[in-house]
User: Which sequence fits this backbone?
């Protein structure tokens, strides 16, 4: 029974997760009709599983037209599920990219301001070191530039911390991307993410469908083995030794066998 339940429950779990990703992904593709898409996607996912199970059990007795229509519908529903999963996972990656981009923009702006303040400070230090141009005003400007640099460094600190966190999150896919693509390509991480998503799609929904078919196969074998057990028991009963006949109570001289010997008889007179 475990061979039936384990594939079945695993198939249901995979299908449920795939359905969740797919339905949310489809709703993100069509944001104008969010809840109708959620309802439609959920019903389609349930219909897909029911159709797979029914078609497998009734393949030989189903008319050819209906059989092919169900088969094409299952394939198309798997494609729709895969599209929804792709949309969901792509959205997650895009959200991460947006966070990274916003953080990078802030850092670039602060770095530019820091460079301007640093250049101004160097210029003022040169003027302060020249007796011909040194003055109290320049000293004041130097102090202002140093305060500005300190303020910019304070502003950069949270963005640098966030950038480190984001790099830790993106780090694993970055290492995978470096194995597949050249780092000089600015889109090498995005390409690697697409490859990973396609691999997940290839395994996710098809594996759920095949596990559901496998559970149906195991269930059919289990039912068939239970039907064959009574037949085997009947055969075993028929194979038992036949009870002693009337002739076995007489010996070769047509004399009745003594009672003591009858009690020891096991079906073959000796």
Assistant:
């Amino acid at each position: 029974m475990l061979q039936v339940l384990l594939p079945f429950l695993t198939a249901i779990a995979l299908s449920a997760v795939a359905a969740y990703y797919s339905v949310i992904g489809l709703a993100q593709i069509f944001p104008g009709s969010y809840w109708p898409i959620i309802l439609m996607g959920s019903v389609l996912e349930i219909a897909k599983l029911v159709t797979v199970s029914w078609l497998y059990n009734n393949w030989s007795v189903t008319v050819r037209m209906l059989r092919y229509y169900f088969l094409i519908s299952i394939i198309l529903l798997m494609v729709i599920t895969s599209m929804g999963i792709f949309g969901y996972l792509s959205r997650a990656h895009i959200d991460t990219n947006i966070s990274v981009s916003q953080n990078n923009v802030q850092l670039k702006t602060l770095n530019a301001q820091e460079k301007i303040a640093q250049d101004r400070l160097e210029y003022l230090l040169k003027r302060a070191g020249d007796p011909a141009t040194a003055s109290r005003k320049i000293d004041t400007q130097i102090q202002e530039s140093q305060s500005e640099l300190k303020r910019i460094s304070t502003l950069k600190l949270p963005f640098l911390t966030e950038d480190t966190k984001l790099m830790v999150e993106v780090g694993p896919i970055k290492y995978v991307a470096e194995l597949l693509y050249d780092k000089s390509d600015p889109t090498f991480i995005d390409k690697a993410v697409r490859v990973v998503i396609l691999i997940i799609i290839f395994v996710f929904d098809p594996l759920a469908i095949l596990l559901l078919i496998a559970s149906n196969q195991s269930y059919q074998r289990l039912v068939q083995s239970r039907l064959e057990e009574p037949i085997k028991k009947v055969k075993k009963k028929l194979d038992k030794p036949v009870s002693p006949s009337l002739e076995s109570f007489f010996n070769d001289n047509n004399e009745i066998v003594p009672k003591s010997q009858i009690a020891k008889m096991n079906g073959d007179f000796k």
Summary: The chain has a mean pLDDT of 82. Residues 2-230 form one domain.
